[in-house]
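User: I'll paste a sequence; please echo it back and then give the predicted structure.

Assistant: Echoing your sequence first, then the prediction.
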Amino acid sequence: MIWDKAQELGRLIGQSEEYQALRRGEAALREDKDTVAKLDRIQILARQVDQLVAQGQMPDQPTAEAYEAAVRDLEMSPVGQAYVVARANFEKLMTRVNQQISEGMEKGVTSSIITLG
């Protein structure tokens, strides 16, 4: 029963406007050559930062600043802004979904009715 409900919830989330907008935003990111170049630059810088952190080092200031500038540049582009807004709205939806699940779990704990199935 839980798995059926989980699949139903997933289907409903997949049909939500928030999820559809996120998918459109992701597609727009992949289709825009300038944005793809920005994403590639962010990934290269992120790998450099991750490697330094894995070695117990902090990234140098130019690398950290370059990463922040690349992210800011992406977020300020029209395609990037649309994606950021869509992602934030989807995250809000998922936060509300998780809150409702938590409330349901709390009610389940205090319920005297036992259901198996």
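The domain at 15-110 is CATH 1.20.1500.10 (YheA-like fold). Helices lie at 2-15, 17-31, 33-54, 61-76, 78-110.
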